[in-house]
Amino acid sequence: MERSESIYRQSKQELEDIQQKLRMIEYELGTMDLHQKSIITKSVKGKIYYYEQWRSEGKVHSRYLAPVQPGIIWKEEQNLLRKQELLENKKKLEKLKKPLETFVKSLEREREKESLLKDYTFEVYWKDEITARVYVKGGRVTVSRFVEHPLKQLFADKNMTRYQLNKILELRCWDRNRADIDEILRHLGLKYYNPYEIVRKTHGVSYNDYIWFRFPGEKLTSKDVLVR
Length: 228
Known about the structure:
By secondary structure, the protein is of the alpha+beta class. It has two domains: 2-115; 120-225, no CATH class. It has helices spanning 2-30, 74-115, 162-170, 181-188, 195-202, 222-225; strands at residues 38-44, 47-56, 59-67, 120-126, 129-137, 140-145, 159-161, 211-214.
């Protein structure tokens, strides 16, 4: 479990890095001319000149740059080389991105299957008022809601998948990608990021509201867990 979680986090981070690089490339390409240009020379009346050339709507277009002299068009050459470099990097990153996306999705499906191994239940409170009781069995989650108030109730539906529940629980956890998440998990005595295991430790408490979770066997009130 620990090893698979480590592989997942590493693969997810690699995918996010690739996506970020692609966004930066797309942004820079967006500041450049969209046409695929090249620099050519033409001889006119015995003199040689530089021209930019490109094809658009089935026609070849050209633009005069300067008479041929050493280094006179270095800026245009640099721009073309930079654009070529960006396009090549984009192609390589997209080639890496596709199989990595598939791998990460397969790991996410495996993580969901692993989470199906354990059935559990818990109660949800707003201060000391019970708002829901959640039953998790196999891949099915059933919610008994006792309060409809939107500020007190976490669940919009009475039935959901375990994956959907985990996403809701994750909203009551720290961001899995924050820089110090490993240190936080170690402090909680956890070896990997698991929303259910985290809220077992934190009771799903947030600074933003008065909602908290009570698990079977716990003799707790809001005063024991709430931070405000």
